[in-house]
Amino acid sequence: MVSPVQRLYETCKDVFVNSGPGVVPSAEKIERLKAALDMMVETDVGLRPNMPYFKSTTYDKTPKITYLHLHECDKFSIGIFCLPPSAVIPLHDHPGMTVFSKLLFGEMHIKSYDWVDSLPAEPTPIANPLDKGLEDSTGLRLAKVKMNTEFRAPCKTSILYPADGGNMHCFTARTACAVLDVLGPPYCDPEGRHCQYYYDFPLANISVPEEQKGDYAWLKEREKPEDLTVVGALYKGPKIVSSIFNLFKNSCRFLTLRR
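The structure assignment produced for this chain is given below.
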């Protein structure tokens, strides 16, 4: 019997067969991968909410986040972020990627942005010049809020695209939670696909109605936040076999041993 994780892997292989920077899979393939993820729960990947990953060990620091690596190749990657309550994955981007995020359990707030290039504006953010290291308005770029929503499992998979759908996003754990992420293609520093972090600031001058100003913000690149701690841990759930042929071969071997 094929496990949900193996089924996810096989689906990803087909969906991302032509994966590359800026390449978005067809609508049919996106729906197929989304459907596979929508059905998955924490037990499918060997997780339980009472595991140590989901507990804060200190109360005076930002909770650390644990990352479980399931698979990575040049076409796609699969991994799980395990967040204790109040843990935050700061605002960051996914250059040239199509990203699927499935909340396996818990409650999480997601805020995401897309770049705006068509509205004239003067970069005059309402912010203390010394706040968050902002010393001037250099490098500010206008973005529009795509999502600012609370999610509670079970819920549907979120999808973002290279140029829309909320390519820059921030995760805040309201409770302990786990997020299964699929990226195609994966991050790759040598190819220029590194994770860029951002500050976001309220607006001052922009040619939109006053009531819509909350839908926009200025984003400014920043270094990786010093208080962000992501540690790797060994994934102990159902294993991924590199091909169905190997899976069939292993199953036959198991049945032979049982006899």
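Interim note for the steering committee: The chain has a mean pLDDT of 85. The helical segments are 4-15, 27-38, 244-258.
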